[in-house]
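hiii so my PI (J.) wants the whole complex modelled not just the main chain, which honestly fair. so below is everything: three entries, each one labled with what it is. i double checked the lines twice but i was tired so who knows lol
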Amino acid sequence: MTLTKQDIGRLLAKQGILIAFAVFMIGFALANQRFIAIDNIAGVIRSSAILGVMALGVTFVVIGGNLDLSVGSMMSFSTIVVLDLHDKIGPTLAIPAMFGLTLLLGAFIGFLVGYLKLNSLIVTLGMLSAIHGLTLTWSGGKNMDIADKSGTWFSFFGQDRIFGIPMPILIFALLAVLLSLLLARTPFGRKVYAVGGNGQAATFSGIPRARIVFFTYLISAFCVAMAGLLQASRSLGSQNTVGQGMELEVLAAVILGGASLLGGAGTVFKTVVGVLILGFIQNGLLLVGLDFYVQYIVTWAIIILAVWLDVAAKRGRLWSPIA
Amino acid sequence: MTDPTPVLRLEGIVKSFPGVRALDGVSFDVRPGEVHALMGENGAGKSTLMKVLGGIHAPNEGKIFIAEEPVVMTSPMQAKAKGVVFIHQELSLADELTVAENIFLGELPLKSFGRVDWAKLYARTDAILKKLNVRFTAKTRVGDLSIANQQMVEIGRALTVSPRAVIFDEPTASLTDAEKVVLFDVIADLQSQGVGIVYISHRMEEVFKITDRISVLRDGQYRGTLITADTDEDEVTKLMIGRSLDLSRNESHHEMGDVALEVRGLSCGTLFQDVDFAVRKGEVLGFYGLVGAGRTEIAETIFGLRNPTAGQIYLNGREVRIHSPIDAVRMGISLVPEDRKGQGLVLSMNCRDNMTLPQVDDMTAGPFVSDGAEIAIFDQYRDKLDIRTPGWRQLVGNLSGGNQQKIVIGKWLSMRPDVLIVDEPTRGIDVGSKSEIHSLIRDLAAQGFAVIVISSEMPEVLHVSDRIVAMYSGKVMREFTSEEVTEDNLIQAISGITEKVA
Amino acid sequence: MTTDNRKEILKRGAIWAFILVELAFFSIIGDRLSVSDKAFMDYANMLLLLKQSAPIGIIALGMTIIMINGNIDLSVGATFALAAIVLLDSMTWPFMQALGDWAIPLAWVFALLTGATLGAINGLIVWKTGVDAFIVTLGSMLGFRGLVFMFNGEQPTSHLNWTLVDFAEGHFLGLHTPTWFLLCAALVLWLLMTRTVHGRNAYAIGNNREAAVNAGIRVGPHMLLNFILIGFLAALSAVVFYSESGSVNPNDGMLFELWAITAVVLGGTKLAGGYGSIISTLGGVIAIQLLRKGLGHIGADTQTVNLVIGLILIAVLILDRQLNRKGQGELKI
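here's the output for the full assembly
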């Protein structure tokens, strides 16, 4: 009797997020046929792609045992920079230049957290503010727009399709597959898990902890640059606060996917699921006629339930033992 | 001695956990003004007994009496209210707070509106500190105190009530000799006030010095109570382990090769100074000493985790500089660390991944980790070391201590090191696995590894070592061969007594 | 032990020294570069500075006690916005309008109750589920924001009550009303954290939770109380700010949590808990506001402020690490 209850608990904890996802999808599909129409699904994935690409990078940072709160303002930076440089040096040079600058920021954070071993929460909090300032300074506090919107091929990444698949979806999927292989199948990925799971044991096993952490931030910055490119290419113009607040949404998706904030647990695939859940809930609630703010409240409930189930399964009881 | 009412009495305590009978009918009593030692090997049930007494575990059977009144313990706080106080081995202090706040943690004296009554707090603390005869004040921040003084604060906590019984759990583990004297004075003082003392310790000489009676536990069972004055160490030992202590020395010598690792004049700040030793291929070199003698720190320095302040390290005759564990691993040095869970293993990873962690870079097929090569290594060392696990997918966190340790050893053996350093190889491991690991260490030496074993257990060092280095307070006191070593000269060496003709 | 004491004084004094350096810098160098004729250290300017510190400052005070307790609260910005909406919206309710100016204190009570309730929700979830406060409040940051949008969609909520505005813009003994709120809140919390059992236990829990539990301190209620307090303070901050402005945008208060945390960390409170002080946080808040105004004074773009604050935060972290190094023979992990 208790055994079966435990088994259910374990199953819920392990695959709870997938089960919840399935229940949601079926529920929405029953409520509104349009929900499972191909173009609707494609639309959801497409609008989640930017958040998703960022979440892929943050997954590495979180599994490595750190946090990255700077991805939102870094994404604003990438977007503004690439739009600004587009008109100044042309898209062919602007894109690599923007990637270079964003990676430089990532390297700086990676250096502070990895090599100087500073607290990642505060470092990336500081960088959130600093990069925000940098972006505002770069743009002079103004919005950035491409002058000739119809005459540039720059819209390719955000607006075109290949084989009928929108580019953002393609890029998100491709990046997800590549990063999933990197994390799950390569020695580097294994070391990320080790460093996040038990940093001391990793050091005692001859793993260069600082370097691994450094690279997780570099990967995160790369993903941010990619997200910035998608954002800029989609809109061809942007406010300089476009990524504001996204850092926490991204983190929510990663946690929803089951990555532990303590590090050492999570997968790229689960993060993708987390991102899609957020996207589909938003879409599904709208389709069944609920106001847009309901998604916030539902997301709140889902995040807490997901993590609660996870910790409850680990400690073997639902309620916390805190007196 | 007449038989006054015992302050604390346990009767037939039974406590089972799934699969284990941790306590099986334990009875003993503490009389007022008595120091009663509780002895037993690791895992004999002492700590479970304490947890039952403190209300953390409810006993399945049996009764607890305080002054012959039956009580049901629900929490350490309730026990304290009834006059039974625990002083734990691990310090449980808030180091940013003051001494006074720590002593009265959880029971700060109150004024109206939930305000702290500082005047009363400091007055009561001063009274307690006076009793303890310490030099710090009530307003000192606990983080600024030495470990020994922090222990005094912990003891001070016992004195906030008028205790009937105080239970000391290994109180001298981190104290110097001078500090021990103060502690024993405190105990004597409590004794004279008619408080009953339970004194848990491994150290025979202390037990024989200060206790009146000795109760012994073995494998969760009560083995009897002896009157200290009428017994000797041998009798207690026999009661504890069921036979005389096996102090047999290693006798199987095999051919030794060249010197694999040599250290000259190695120092690291205040941790250890001017250490010289050498270990040959095929040899087991034991490091024996008290906790804090600097043995682990030497190992960490050789493994590149600390920067030496002076001295040289020679590997196969060549001087080397080791800046990080990465260097050490590359040069063929491996370290099985002291803290298995904290430093040896990533508990959230499976058996195979833990074992292949240091060499995962070399086990690739194209850009990816080669599953086959990894599983081959795991299988090889699982069989070789007889690791009992349902499969490589098992998380190491779910294995027993002995099997976990074998995973760590396997991890380093598979690197085929020249020098293997093993720090406290059998800490927290059951008796059966212990002897397996001992014979494993001997086997490794026979295969030509140079092995360094660091241990705080004398039988273990005697048992596995070809030579023994005795350390005291950061210095090498003496080196013994297994022929010349005796219990006495070893103990003298690690206690800092240099020359005394045996 | 004297070196420890010296280090302690250095730590506590650092933020005030930093404020002095800022003042000196901006009045000497600043007045030369200044775009206006007014001196930086102008009395009215300083008063205004204190007033402008109040909204973030009051929240930062709450964040201090939460962090001392070993938790964190990312939802204060949303709580701030929701309390503001309740404040302004409630005054448009028919029965409230019938009360005339007596609606003001009632509206305040509604707003403050809202804040305390939201805080209690966070606290209860943290206590009862055992989920980390970071995650719980990350979730409620979204959830509370959803409640904000529920009131008026993406439209701003406005209600201007001139009695209220007069009060909020008023002076009392030379200081602006918001400044008084900030100072009173600081005083009360300082007394709470240094003089009461709740405060001392909160320190103990943040410092060594296991020790606190072993000593029989009930961790849950203390955490709950602190969450209620920070919710209340976020609402108080909204009351102070919106009594004057009279209009709240549903996105108001975003990133306030980050500013508050920045001020608290600048003030030297440990992220891990157990160490920190209300007074130092006040210093942190003033330091940030000084920087803001000072950079404006020397004609730097307002944008630079973010850059400078971010870099200073990181510099503080590096400095702190250097101060705490153990030196020779340290284990390199």
